[in-house]
């Protein structure tokens, strides 16, 4: 028997009560959990694992980069000896690149900056939104970033990195700050600095950053402002709508580029 506030309880009763008691819900419908870093740490671990595999198989010359990075249209590459190698892109069915590119990095500074940002932005949003909604936010933001790359980038250039998803988290943090009447100015400063960096430093995919930011703003708006009475339906409906919209944009772009025969050196 265990001492209770009034009298005693049997251990079996305590365990059964804990099992059947509904877990608490956060302000936006997510489950309240003791460890609000699990999804963030898992995402960081996946990014680091892919980076290590790339480094172990040749770094920038690794074939994993060609497989995982986002390439809108297939390209032809001239190899030593005059041989031609075709690098497969989304136009030839490599649709997985829309997702895998978000977990792909080559340079250590690239993954370092992105993972530090994810470490700082992830846990607060994971705690406020809940694990499932936070994961959906991250993935949809990354997908929206990939769709923007498909639409606005050069068709034969590779794009990789988690920056689109990170910008989605920044956008979500801004929405939450507005909703809670928090320190909006600080979030705007950080967002502004990152946008300036995006448009002034060469080699950065502004398309992926802006696409991810738009995705994060839109989805966070649905997650945070959905009325309690229809919260679950509206929140997950928004996830589905944004994901389908991103895929529709990609499909339209693939159709415009043409399937097969679209190569560049």
Write structural notes for this entry.
α9 packs antiparallel against α10 (231-257). This protein has helices spanning 11-20, 38-56, 63-68, 97-100, 108-129, 131-152, 163-179, 184-200, 206-225, 231-257; strands at residues 2-3, 8-9, 75-78, 84-87. β1 and β2 form a beta hairpin. Helix content is 62%, strand content 5%. With 265 residues, the chain is mainly α. The chain has ten helices and four strands. Strands 1-2 form a two-stranded antiparallel sheet. The chain has a two-stranded antiparallel sheet with strand order 3-4. The chain has a single domain, classed as Rhomboid-like fold.
Terminus-to-terminus distance: 76 Å
CATH architecture assignment: Up-down Bundle
Question: Unreliable stretches, pLDDT < 50, 5 or more residues?
Answer: 4-8, 260-265
- Tell me the number of helical segments per DSSP (H or I, 4 or more residues long): 10
Mean pLDDT: 88
CATH superfamily: Rhomboid-like
Globally, the shape reads globular
CATH class: Mainly Alpha
Order of strands side by side in the largest beta sheet?
Answer: 1-2
Structural class: mainly alpha
Biggest sheet, in brief? Answer: 2 strands, antiparallel
Strand content: under 5%
Number of separate structural domains: 1
What is the chain-wise order of helices and strands? EEHHHEEHHHHHHH
**Total strands:** 4
Helix content: 55-70%
Examine the coordinates and then state which fold CATH places here, giving the name of the CATH topology: Rhomboid-like fold
Could you tell me the radius of gyration in angstroms?
22 Å
């Amino acid at each position: 028997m265990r001492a209770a506030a009034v009298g005693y309880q049997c251990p079996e009763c305590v365990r059964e009560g804990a099992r059947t008691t509904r877990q608490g819900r956060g302000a936006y419908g997510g489950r309240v959990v003791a460890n609000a870093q699990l999804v963030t740490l898992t995402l960081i671990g996946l990014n680091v694992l892919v980076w290590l595999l790339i480094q172990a198989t040749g770094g920038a010359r690794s074939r994993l980069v060609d497989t995982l990075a986002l390439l809108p249209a297939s390209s032809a590459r001239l190899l030593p000896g005059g041989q031609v190698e075709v690098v497969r892109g989304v136009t030839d069915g490599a649709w997985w690149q829309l997702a895998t590119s978000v977990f792909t990095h080559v340079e250590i500074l690239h993954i370092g900056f992105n993972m530090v940002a994810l470490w700082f932005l992830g846990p607060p949003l994971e705690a406020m939104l809940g694990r499932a909604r936070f994961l959906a936010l991250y993935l949809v933001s990354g997908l929206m970033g990939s769709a923007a790359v498909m639409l606005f980038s050069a068709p034969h250039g590779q794009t990789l990195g988690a920056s689109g998803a990170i910008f989605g988290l920044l956008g979500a943090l801004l929405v939450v700050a507005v909703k809670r009447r928090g320190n909006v100015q600080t979030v705007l400063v950080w967002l502004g600095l990152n946008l300036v960096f995006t448009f002034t430093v060469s080699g950065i995919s502004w398309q992926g950053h802006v696409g991810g930011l738009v995705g994060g703003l839109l989805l966070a708006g649905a997650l945070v402002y959905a009325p309690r009475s229809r919260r679950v339906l509206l929140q997950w409906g928004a996830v589905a709508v944004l994901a389908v919209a991103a895929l529709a944009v990609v499909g339209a772009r693939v159709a415009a580029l043409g399937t097969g025969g679209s190569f560049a050196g």
